[in-house]
Design goal:
The protein contains 24 helices and 15 strands. The protein is α/β, with parallel strands linked by helices.
Length: 620
């Protein structure tokens, strides 16, 4: 039997590798045998070895220029290679693959869509928009919902919010069941405070979460959605974790700790980000005689003072932003990390799925994401979550996949070197001295329609009051002014604070009479900012993690009278403090004392408490 016949027999028996060995032997004797080269290329593709297949198809295309089957074979392989690069975060290589494909089929809508995805991942937003638009234009069969969805994502990254909303709506017209388009639309509508029909959309998402255990909804996007309970959040996090296939984890580390305990902090936010004002001094304060600290960074490389401050700490700084999750997990394993602490969770540039590989002895969810990280195929994605008794009371423990590790004080740390308070008066910011200033400096996405309506009712009851909000985007301001006017409140009573330096931002809190917190997603770092400036914060605490953070901070400074349990009590307290300046002054004095006596701004003490928890993991 000749070699070709033997190769075909092995192929029929499923021994592709054996067939390839024989065919290569044939080719060695006759390098110009085109049919054998075609068979080798096809077998490599059949065996999912698209890199090798592409090499042979490229050679064949040089010989058989214009052969459509060879061209299609090459482009099929390049698409598979490009998508694999995309999954593994090798975005530049993915882009290169699709650029090569498009030299052969420049108007193919599928290839243009994939090219747009690579460009979007590389933050080349204008080019990604062009690719998506060309994909839509050249799709003669039917419009594609995913392309409109991703085009919306690109517009959003450029703050072209109206264009983005239009794209998400078009995606839903094509595929009304597209849950990710619906979530993206809701999230952006919240960002610009466009509330028309938003309650219907909230109900759709709620029903989807309850009834569809296969639906993938970003856990971060639902933190600000009303009417979700802790079990809903747990279900969302678990479904999100299980969007990736079950990961085979490393073997559990059983060897004893030698010398120092190695703590690895994983985050996309070791940069100009609120995390800097929370964690930097804790990292500085760690006892280097007992602990070795390593930072694993997955965010963008930015030329900021904050990013450089993290890199200059007495810590090994390891950038894994261009690594796949498997590669990142191996890096962490190689660094012999005992405790891996994820400080980002399910937020932008998150690498939380690394924890599924179990690269460390213990894995802790803390600070970056206000909730559970869920289960990964019936096992907690993270072993522990750091909290305090207010954030997660005993009655809520079973709503979390993780085992709760309790800090003795508020779970949130802060840097001690915050801006020095320079006395300010209301006229410095264009307000009259007799204006009572209600303010909320949370991001627009945290302001629900019900919350804003409650604030409008306060303005109606308090004729000398103004509402001061954080400036964000023009559409959000226009929508709030219009909503206020339709509800009987003139727009000039709602002011917007422009973006300024962090020092100026902290200092302007001093003129605020009462900071109005948001619900169900509280102000987190913003609450600490206000307390540092000795500004009272009125909050409403629910049962979710995100809705209890401000309450935890207020409890830490012994100001629990500013914690309310429902909208009616929230409204009554805000009205009472408007009418009773003596009571408001008493609370401000109490905040000053609480700030002085608590550990809220004492990162050294916080680090000591945290280190005890770390050490206890090895003594239990």
């Amino acid at each position: 039997m000749d070699l070709i016949s033997k190769a075909k027999k092995k192929e029929r028996m499923g021994d592709i590798e054996g067939a390839l060995v024989l065919l290569k032997e044939v080719l060695a004797h006759n390098p110009n045998d085109i049919s054998t080269q075609i068979e080798i290329a096809n077998l490599y593709a059949t065996n999912n070895n698209f890199l090798e297949a592409a090499i042979y198809f490229r050679k064949l295309l040089l010989i058989m220029n214009g052969n459509e089957s060879i061209r299609e074979g090459l482009c099929f392989c390049l698409k598979q290679i490009g998508n694999e690069y995309q999954i593994n975060r090798n975005y530049k290589l993915a882009k290169d693959c699709f650029e090569e494909v498009l030299t052969h089929y420049p108007n193919n809508p599928d290839y243009l869509f994939n090219y747009g995805n690579a460009l979007l991942s590389l933050n080349q937003f204008d080019k990604s928009i062009e690719a998506y638009q060309n994909s839509i234009k050249n799709n003669s069969l039917k419009p594609d919902a995913d392309t409109f969805n991703n085009l919306g994502n690109a517009y959003r990254r450029l703050s072209k919010n109206e264009d983005a909303i239009s794209c998400y709506k078009q995606a839903l017209e094509i595929n009304p069941k597209s849950i990710h388009s619906k979530v993206e639309l809701i999230h952006l509508m919240q960002h610009v405070c466009e509330w028309e029909n938003i309650d219907t959309l909230f109900n759709d998402i709620k029903n989807h979460i309850i009834n569809d255990d296969k639906g993938k909804v970003s856990p971060f996007t639902v933190l600000s959605m009303p009417n979700l309970n802790n079990k809903d959040h747990l279900r969302v996090a678990t479904n999100w974790s299980e969007q990736i296939k079950k990961i085979k984890s490393f073997n559990k580390i059983s060897t004893p700790v030698k010398n120092k305990i190695t703590i690895g902090y994983l985050s996309a936010d070791f940069r100009s980000h609120p995390l800097y004002y929370l964690i930097l001094d804790v990292l500085k304060s760690h006892n280097r005689k007992i602990f070795s600290i390593k930072l694993f960074y997955s965010g963008p490389d930015e030329p900021s003072i904050e990013h450089e401050a993290f890199k200059k700490l007495d810590c090994k700084f390891i950038n894994l932003s261009n690594e796949s999750d498997a590669q990142g997990a191996q890096l962490i394993r190689d660094e012999k990390v005992d405790i891996l602490v994820d400080l980002s969770g399910f937020t932008q540039n998150s690498r939380s799925f690394i924890a599924a590989y179990k690269p460390a002895r213990y894995h802790i969810n803390w600070l970056g994401f206000a909730g559970t990280m869920g289960f990964h195929y019936k096992k907690p994605l993270f072993d522990f979550i750091l909290a305090d008794k207010y954030i997660i009371p005993d009655s809520n423990i079973n709503d979390y996949a993780e085992k709760v590790l309790y800090l003795p004080h508020c779970y949130q740390p802060n840097i001690s070197n915050r801006p020095k308070l320079i006395p300010k008066i209301k006229k410095d910011y264009g307000f009259n001295d007799n204006t009572f200033i209600y303010a909320s400096f949370s991001q627009p996405i945290k302001i629900t329609k019900d919350q804003f309506n409650l604030w409008l009712e306060l303005l109606k009851s308090c004729p000398s009051a103004n509402l001061w909000l954080l400036d964000s985007n023009n559409l959000y301001k226009e929508n709030l002014w219009l909503h206020a006017k339709l509800n009987g409140v003139e727009g000039d009573r709602i002011r917007f604070a422009p973006k300024v330096s962090i020092d100026d931002h902290i200092n302007r809190h001093q003129i605020i009479d009462l900071f109005l917190d948001t619900y169900p997603y509280n102000a987190h770092t913003s609450t600490s900012d206000a307390i540092w400036a000795e500004c009272p914060v009125l909050t409403l605490s629910g049962k979710s993690f995100a809705s209890r953070v401000a309450g935890s901070i207020l409890k830490e400074i012994d100001c629990e009278e500013l914690i309310t349990k429902d909208n009616a009590k929230y409204y009554d307290k805000a009205l009472e403090l408007y009418k009773n300046p003596k009571e408001l002054l008493r609370i401000k004095q109490k905040i000053i004392m609480g700030k002085k006596n608590s550990i809220l701004f004492r990162p050294n003490m916080f680090a000591t408490n945290l280190e005890k928890i770390y050490r206890d993991l090895f003594s239990s």
